[in-house]
Amino acid sequence: MSGLKVLAVIPVYNHPENLRAMAEGALAVLPDLLVVDDGSALPVSPLLAGLPLSLIRHEVNRGKGAAIKTAAAFASEHGFSHLVTLDADGQHDPAELVRFVEAAAGHPRAFIVGARDFARARNVPFSSRFGRRFSEFWMFIQTGRRVTDMQSGYRVYPVAALGGLVLRDDRYSFEIEVLVKAAWSGFEIIEIPASVFYPAARDRVSHFRAFRDNWRLTVLNTRLTIRALVPVPFRELVWADGPGPDRVSARRPLQAFRRLMADSATPGRLAVSTAIPFMVNCLPLPGLQTFLLLWLIAALKLNRPWSLAVSHACPPGFLPALAIETGHYVLTGVWLTEFSWRTLGREAWSRLGDWLAGALTGGPPAALAAALAVYLAARLIGRGLARGTTHGR
């Protein structure tokens, strides 16, 4: 990638008190600054009079995500390689832009997030601490990546990469969506420390609306989690280096799937990625198996498409029913042959005991048998592919 050309971006919506100071601080570090006025009640142009910057105004409030998308379009049109965004409310220190630009120079194809130092900050709202942990958990479930501060607005975005992602959200939830989809698309996400300032609660102005914006985050996380459960490789974005500026292009899903299977799905890894969903689907955790499986896929770095395909291949209720039958036989010495309200309703606690016993005694052998079958098949297929490659030469 050629040299960086970085545009500082300040989205603003009804934060006039600190805007000029933030703009002056940004211009002291970077020569190029864009302020996106996202429909403030009073236009902010008089506050910025005399400063060498660009200003775009949305006539109505469209959301922080929409403001960043507007900035990305402006940056692409004017030949900038990166955006670095900081909030207008004085929460971020513009002097730290230097470290963000240095990080971008060392990792020009990465999304860089300023992890706020809550340990040294005063007046940190409980909602910020809770939201940080909450978003970190869902990021790990959905992508297998650990990002400690998903909600920090102090960030560097590679313009070409940002333009290659399909981003639907325009409000605060944009900052969650963009990192999840960047991880899915194969981009590196790097965190660097960033200071943060919170005024006292009586002086704080926030446009975050608890019910409305938390509902949007819930809808977003539901949508992203459902997508994470689909056993199809994510649309990978790759840098296509060539003459002229670097650009991003998408590989075909089938091609990405073949590459995934060829590059990372060793017979041993496929075997483990088969055994784990068998074990999880046998457990007496109705409604929780899905989350446990996603967590294990991330924690154990399993082959996600394969594990999910194995999990979905089992007919709903088949493994639990098999576990209950096995457990009942282990505990009583006879098979459960009557399926009625009495055996499955009034005796539900007994069936739960059967289920647990079956999961512990029958689950491991079933998982081991499936894993062994997949391992041997993968070895045979691998040898066949290698032999075919050798003959082709």
Task: List the topology elements.
Blueprint (H helix, E strand, L loop, with lengths): L5 E7 L3 H12 L5 E6 L15 E5 L5 H14 L4 E4 L11 H10 L4 E6 L9 H18 L11 E4 H6 L9 H11 L4 E6 L15 H20 L7 E4 L6 E4 L2 H12 L2 H16 L6 H12 L3 H10 L4 H15 L8 H6 L1 H14 L1 H30 L1
Parallel strand pairs: 1-2, 1-4, 2-3, 5-7
Antiparallel strand pairs: 4-6, 5-6, 8-9
Q: How many helix segments?
A: 15
The CATH topology assignment of the largest domain is Spore Coat Polysaccharide Biosynthesis Protein SpsA, Chain A
Largest sheet: 7 strands, mixed
Helix content: 40-55%
CATH first level of the largest domain: Alpha Beta
CATH architecture of the largest domain: Alpha-Beta Complex
Give an overview in words.
There is one protein chain. The protein has 393 residues and is of the alpha/beta class. It has 2 domains: 6-229, Spore Coat Polysaccharide Biosynthesis Protein SpsA, Chain A (Alpha-Beta Complex), CATH 3.90.550.10; 265-392, no CATH class. It has helices at 16-27, 64-77, 97-106, 126-143, 159-164, 174-184, 210-229, 253-264, 267-282, 289-300, 304-313, 318-332, 341-346, 348-361, 363-392, and strands at residues 6-12, 33-38, 54-58, 82-85, 111-116, 155-158, 189-194, 237-240, 247-250. A 7-stranded mixed beta sheet has the order 3-2-1-4-6-5-7, with helices on both faces. The protein has a two-stranded antiparallel sheet with strand order 8-9. Helix 9 (267-282) runs antiparallel to helix 15. It is elongated. The chain starts with 5 loop residues before the first strand and ends with a helix. Residues 242-246 and 388-393 have low confidence and may be disordered.
